[in-house]
Each structure stands twice: as structure tokens, then as C-alpha cells.
Amino acid sequence: MVRERDLTGRGGLIAEGTVVLDQLLRSRRFRPRSLLVLPARLDGLSERLARLPRDVPVYVAESAVFDRIAGFPVHRGVLAYAERHEEASDPLSGLREAAEGGGTVVVACGLSNHDNMGALFRNASVFGAAAVLLDDRCCDPLYRKAIRVSVGTVLTLPFVRLGSAGEIWRSLEELGFEALALSPAGTSDLRDLRSGPPRALFLGTEGEGLGEAFLRRHRSLRVAMASGLDSLNVATCAAIVLHRLYELRNP
Amino acid sequence: MVRERDLTGRGGLIAEGTVVLDQLLRSRRFRPRSLLVLPARLDGLSERLARLPRDVPVYVAESAVFDRIAGFPVHRGVLAYAERHEEASDPLSGLREAAEGGGTVVVACGLSNHDNMGALFRNASVFGAAAVLLDDRCCDPLYRKAIRVSVGTVLTLPFVRLGSAGEIWRSLEELGFEALALSPAGTSDLRDLRSGPPRALFLGTEGEGLGEAFLRRHRSLRVAMASGLDSLNVATCAAIVLHRLYELRNP
């Protein structure tokens, strides 16, 4: 049986379904090592299977065997085991390029929920963020649920884990990024944001948000909401800001 | 054991946790009929319990009994059984008011996923939509998972189920609404939207979106995205548009 904890320590991961498999096949950071496919899905997958490197075995198993190997009921009929490319380039190298191109990066601090992590990657990818930076309290984006919710974008959007929010900020500051710290109590309204330097969008934990000290030191940004609720989901809130930043970069 | 299917036919529902309970206590459309609470949570809940109507019993049970009654492991230590107010006002009556006030309503067509349904209500509520209208193919917003993901807003934001998208449109057209049909292939870009008449935001199914015939007949709206992905979650996409409409209504 595939155990999540046996995989993640080795940089391994499980990709489920064709949408995620497509991202895996596009990925320059991860490569498939083996596939497990239901017999009934083989025909529909033939084009994708033809694009696999020659040394990647495709195992075919009936549903009952399939579910026992996976350790959970598999609805999508295709699983890939993948590993990080050893020669994958340093994800930080893309940050300099993003900075020079006026791009956006996302910094997640203390994001502990795999659904939110996956949704954040999906939204960052849809709106063309250059990378996601994670502080050391974040959950693992390569966890199965996060991969699925991200529709596989954790495999294609560069990310790196880099200590505390303050440490991450020091790396970004040198490259010319402006920090935008998202908070319901932010002092700037999103609608007043104009195009400008490359931006690093900092997001806090689901519960407590970013620390007060961090918010005081940086430009803090709020999304206007109807009264009575300050309760947008963190990934949804990020989507609204990332969409606006995308509009500003592409007028 | 509480069975979802035994409840929903009677207009009954299960509210889990304090966040949802707070919405239930604010709701004018639903009322609590009984509560089930873990002993350890009683003190923390005392203020809320004091606000319950006198005829609502509060049952206290240890964890093992609690989970057996609920039929699932309960992490939040408080469950409420609630029912629709018989005298609750017609949710359609609010539509005329919304139309006169230049407000926004959301129309969901074929939304079959409870997470997306819950997230849609949460976003509609956060950005001050007046109501959610559901076509007859939508899943039930009063399903437990949808209630939880909505952070209880399905209990406070008026909604009604009203036949097909076309039938819903005929009700709204009479009241002076403009239809905005959300689609990745929309002919208007969200950034070109200006303040105007009251808007009805139509959202399609997760898979296929709104029908082509419907899109041809109405103003269709797209959200700008980076190339290569047209894959924003439907509730997230709605949040981006609802936020913009909120900004336009509150300049």
C-alpha cells in the first residue's frame, strides 16, 4: 500500500487523474517514475502514455487490486508515482527573472490546510504568479489532497520553503519586490493599488493571519467586503488580489 | 443516527460548530429545534445557549455517544438540528428590493458539488449579494458539507430553487436585472464592467458551464487569466466578479 509518509520524505508524490497527469507531463521539476492504470482507461490515455519517457513502466490492474495498492478508493482510474528531478533548477533563480519582469510572487505563511494550499497554487497559476514561497510552518503542497485541489499546478508552478516570513522578505527585498501583506484590517484598499514594482503577496494563516509586527512594517492590503463578515477563504482572497495584479500587469 | 436523507426532505438540517450556529441564531429563515453539545463545550457556549428560544432543548452527551448519534466523528463539539421557519417570508420578495437598490443576485445553474455550493454562498454573502437563485439541477445547499463550507451563510442569505435558467431569467428580467453570464469565452472582460442596472450573475456547471444558447442571448463575461489554463474554480471565479460588482456599487 502506498503510504503518503513513505513518499514525501523522498521527494516522491502521487498524481491522480488525467488533469494532474497532464501537469506532471508538462513539469520541469517532477518526473513520472511509474503509472498504475485501470484496464478500461488504457485506450483513453493512449496519447498521454505515448508521451511518457521510455523507462517509465505502466502497470495495469483491475479496480480491487488498484484500490488496495493505492490504499484508498481511486475514482479516476490513473495514478502516477513521481519524483523530483535531481537536476531541477533552483526555484529561486526564477525570482530574479520575476523581479526584473515586474512579476508577482506569492508568500504563504503558516498555511496549514491542504485544500487551501492546493487552491492557492491553482489561483497563483491561473493569474501567472512566478513562484510560491512557503514559510516553515506551511503544510506540504505535495500532499495528495493538495495536489488534487491544485489541479496539478503544484507540479508546474515553482515553489520553495524558506524559513520565516521575515527571512523570506529579506530574500525578496534584495531583488526589488514590494511586500503586500493581505489582512482584513489592511490600511490600503485593493482598489487603490496601481501598477508598480514587482509584488510579493504575503498571506497569513487561516486563523490568525499575518503577525501584527509584520503588518506594521509592510504595506497592508484589504479587500473590500460587506459588513458583518471578514471571512473570505484565504485562497479566494488571494485570487481576488492576484487577479487585480494580473490586470495591472496586462492593461 | 441522524441520516441526511431523513432530514432534508422535511426542510431540516444539521448545523455543526459555533461559526454555523452563529449564523443559525441570526437567521430569519431557519430556527434551531434542538442542540447536542459535548460537556467540555458547555461553558464556552453559555452566551450562545442563553440566546436560544426557551423551547429548544440542549442535550449533553459524551464524545462516544455524540458521534454515534451524529453518525460521523464530530470535531466541533456542538450540533444543532434546525428547521425552516414556516412563516419565513418568500425569498423572492427580496428580489424586488434588490432590483430597486441596484443590487446583485447570483444564479447557479447545474452546480452539483457541495463544496462549490457552500463556497459560492460564502462569497455571495461576503460581497453583499441579495439572494442566490438555483436552477432545478443544483445540489442542495442545506446538505451538511455545503452548510459547513458556507460558514453557515446558507442559513442567512436567502435562496430559492426556480426551474431552468431560462425560467429564472424571465422572473429577473421583469424586475429590471441585467444578466451577466460568466464564461471563460465571455465576450466582455470583467475590467470593462461599469456600474449600471441591478445584475444577475449566472454561473454554469463545474464541467460544461452555461449552455451556448444562453450565452448567445446574454452579456457574457470573462475573467482575464494567464494563458494555458481556463481553470478557475467556479466559486472563486464568482468571488472575483462579485467583488468587482461590490466595488462598483460602493465607489
TrEMBL record, chains A, B:
Residues 14-88 form the RNA 2-O ribose methyltransferase substrate binding domain. One of its GO terms (cellular component) is cytoplasm. Pfam families: SpoU_methylase (PF00588). Keywords: Methyltransferase, Transferase. InterPro entries: Alpha/beta_knot_MTases, Ribosomal_eL30-like_sf, rRNA_Methyltransferase, SpoU_MeTrfase, SpoU_subst-bd, tRNA_m1G_MTases_N. GO terms for biological process: methylation; RNA processing. One of its GO terms (molecular function) is RNA methyltransferase activity. This is tRNA G18 (Ribose-2'-O)-methylase SpoU.
